[in-house]
Every structure is written in C-alpha cells, then in structure tokens.
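Sequence in, structure out. Go.
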Amino acid sequence: MKVIDVWAQQPTQRFIAQPYFDSLKKWTGNDFNEVPLQWLLHTMEKANVSRALLAAWYGPQGSLISNEEVLEVINQQPDKFYGLASADIRNPVESVRTLRKYVRDHDFKGLRIVQWVWELPCTHALYYPLLTECVELDIPVCLQVGHTGPLRSSESGRPADIERIALDFPELKIVCGHIGYPWTTEMIAVATKFPNVYIDTSAYVPKRYPQELVSYMKAHGKKKVLFGTNYPMISADTCMDQLEPLALDEEVLACFLYKNAETVFKL
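Output:
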C-alpha cells in the first residue's frame, strides 16, 4: 500500500541551528547536524512512501527553510515531493503575494504556519489575510496543534483556536498537525464538528497515538486523519514498523496512509 507523508522538512543549517530544537535532538538521540536529502529518500523508500509534502518555515528571525529552498528540492526529485509554502505573517500584503506565487506558479499544495514560532495563536489578525487567500486558492492551511516538542510555549496550539478560525472561514480546509496532544479529545471534537478540519499524526510514532485517536480512525473519523512524520525528527520507516498493533483494517489504513491526503491536498 502506498504512503503519503503530509508533514516533512528537508532541513537547512539555519533550521538545524535553532536552539529550541535542542530538546528534540536530546530526546531522539540525533543531533541533526547534517541531514542530506539522501537520508530522506532512503527512509521513504524503506517505508514505501510515494510522496512527501515538504514544508517551508518562516519565523520572526526570517526563513528557516525558504520557499525557494523547498522548490529546489522538489526540482531535484519532482516525482517524490510536493511543497507547502510559508511566509512572514508580519507583512500581510507581501505574505499573500508570496503564497499566491508558489501555489500558482510552482504548484505548492498548501500553506504551513507553525504558530509557536510566532507565539501567536492562529486567531490573530496577522493570519487572516493568508487564511482568506487559502480559501481563494482552494488549498489547506497546515497548523501545529497541541504541546510543542521544542521548549517553547504551547499556548498557541490550543484546539479552541482551530474552532474559531473554522467558524470564521467555513470554506477553509484546516490540517492540524501533532494530533493535538494532550488535548486530543478536544481536537477530535473540533474535527468532528467541522467538515473541513482534519488531524495529522506528525511528531508521534504509532505506539504513541492516543487510544481515543485510534478509535476515532476506526469509526466516524476514518476520513479525517492523515499520516505525517515530522521528518527528520521521526522517519517514515520507524512509523511503518509500528502500525500493525493498531489493528487498522485495510480500508481505514488506505484512508489514513494516502487517500485522505489525496483528497484534502488535491494530489
């Protein structure tokens, strides 16, 4: 069965050097001082990942992974990768132009914003021009929900903020990364309430998926949960080795591993 990874990064040295990733390096036992593209391709091959969505990262310090750097990787392996654009939210007009350029000119499939980098919830006014443009472009916005792995405030990742933007933008597709833990039950409730809200499993290996999420996937959430890794923090082959104990039937597994991603991102 093929696999689509909806949250991965090909790190730059600027990304790796950020001090708030030190805690992740310690927990994973990997210092990430060098992460060649071949590593990602190797883990994808081992896990039968046919495509990965590579995210750009922007924060107050500028680009950690620029849209252009994501595009360069895609151009090296166009049959393996799609792009997720990002932008500096502090300049709303320019950020909208940037998003529009990479979606229209380079076929990027969505917008990635990591709220804890900005220490601003997704309900802040600076996000709204980009969210409006996502609706106009008919692409998802991909956000982080739940506690942060890096030693930064988790306040901007509350599921209640997702509810607010889902009410304000009923046509907006919202993909909530990192399963909302430890507010997983609330995250599931928001995804159940709103037809355009989805959950991805990035940053968690299957043995750490909360039971309520697994039960949701097997029931009315079958078309609501997408597979993600958050590579290089977690690799796809590690995840695949842990899937069997979840006892997902073939239909649920297909939806989780690739069908939902194809639908939400229009792949």
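Check: The radius of gyration is 17 Å. The beta strands are 3-8, 49-55, 57-59, 62-65, 81-85, 110-113, 141-144, 174-177, 197-200, 225-226.
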